[in-house]
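User: Could you check the structure of this?
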Amino acid sequence: MDYNFDEIIDRKNTNAIKWDASSSTDILPMWIADMDFKTAPEIIEVLQNRVSHGVFGYTQTPEEFYISIQNWWKRRYELSLEKEWIIPVTGVIPALSTTIRSLTEKGDKIIIQPPVYNHFYNSIENCNREVSENNLIYDNGIYTIDFVDLERKATDPKAKLLLISNPHNPVGRVWTKEELQRIALICQKHNVIVISDEIHCDLVFSVYKHISFASLEDQYASNSITLASISKSFNLAGLQVGYIFTKNASLYNEIKYILQMQEMELLSPFAIEALIAAYNKGENWLEELKIYLYNNYTFLHQFIASEIPEIKVVPLQATYLVWLDCSALKPSSDEIAITILEKQNLWINSGTMYGNEGEGFLRINIACPQKILSEGLERLKKALVKSEI
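Assistant: Sure, the predicted structure tokens are below.
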């Protein structure tokens, strides 16, 4: 490899949420979704050059920002985007909240598909909207969409939006074109707008292929909004940069209005430079990262099958967040997570963080040097054995 993903970087005392949220120096954090790798050196070099300029005033978003996004999606996903469809934002979560405020009113219902990214719940509740749960179906280690229930939920006149995680966090599914088309047909039929969170789209493995909701037929794509960012792909969440795109001018204008009203339009110069560098110079790094991440997944899968066979690993098609089926163990997900933390100082997420459908599961972040992953897995094994779970 040209890039050293085995390098162990001390992130303690850098105000990193992942490593410094706990006062304990013995905690091994494998919870929050950021990576323990340095970003691509090509991005670091661009940022260093920007720092050397020494002036960091208000910054307009240049044409190259939009061109970089357009070229990335065309090159990697065969999706042609117009500049007029793209809105820069300070991250996917602010974009999600803005979209909810733009397109719904208090008391409206928003459909989600648990177990799902916990901030979907947070954003909906913070906006005083109601959660409508279209639970995924879990059968023999594979998650699928309950389309019958989705149609039932979509027929509710108070249901205005469907939030999809594409690829899905935390279950690691890459939705197929056929699945997305069925979603699209149901939502168009019942006037439900689709919000597609595609923040993990660049981290799809092996034979799987990311299908953007915006790549569907025009009548479906026009009933959708896509949220995207470089933050997961290139470990740049702290720079606060993302973007929205939609070919629906009416939806675009409504979202743009709320962003202007909240004065959330300006990005930092570092966010702009990082996105341009990532999309223009970071592709080789990303492809090597994906190989390393999948090797980590294979390592974890083999370790658990050999050493902790009571746990089943849900197949990982995308992301660096592995979903572990612990339903064969007696305690609840929360109890298991607490035991692991107390017994071995390993911090991983209880499945219930992602809704009640996450009961019986844990989520573990494998985006770290394999030496750290190995230590985390040994701690997981010791915690479960010592506590006789």
